[in-house]
């Protein structure tokens, strides 16, 4: 989920920046659009890779945190039996 979101955001950002910069430089529209589409593709792939790494980090942290919070199997969770009172 994080990977797709990151890829989409980075791709859209690269596309819009390429469009704005190309039009600001007064380049022809077909050149601006072709460069913007290339930027969209490249940055979507980069975003997918970065998002995939981020997802693995989050999953690993959650797994480790879960292991810390759950009791160990070697510890007996039942209380020790009480001794009978001495007479």
Describe the structure.
The chain is mainly α and 87 residues long. The protein is built from 2 helices and no strands. The longest helix has 41 residues, at 29-69. The termini are far apart. The model has no long low-confidence stretch (mean pLDDT 88).
The major beta sheet can be summarized as: none
User: What is the element string, with H for helices and E for strands?
Assistant: HH
Distance between the termini: 67 Å
Q: What's the helix count?
A: 2
Mean pLDDT: 88
Number of strands: 0
Low-confidence stretches: none
- Secondary structure class reads mainly alpha
Q: Tell me the fraction of residues in β-strands, as a range.
A: under 5%
Q: Report the radius of gyration as a whole number of Å.
A: 28 Å
Shape: rod-shaped
Helix content: over 70%
- In the residues, how many domains can be counted? 1
List keywords for this structure.
single chain, mainly alpha, 74% helix
Topology (elements, then pairings):
Blueprint: H1 2-24, H2 29-69
Helix pairs in contact: 1-2
Short description:
The protein has 87 residues and is mainly α.
């Amino acid at each position: 989920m994080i990977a797709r979101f990151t890829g989409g955001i980075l791709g859209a950002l690269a596309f819009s920046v390429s469009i704005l910069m190309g039009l600001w430089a007064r380049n022809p529209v077909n050149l601006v659009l072709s460069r913007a589409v290339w930027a969209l593709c490249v940055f979507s792939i980069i975003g997918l890779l970065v998002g995939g790494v981020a997802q693995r980090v989050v999953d690993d942290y959650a797994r480790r945190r879960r292991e810390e919070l759950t009791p160990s199997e070697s510890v007996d969770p039942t209380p020790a039996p009480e001794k009978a009172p001495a007479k």
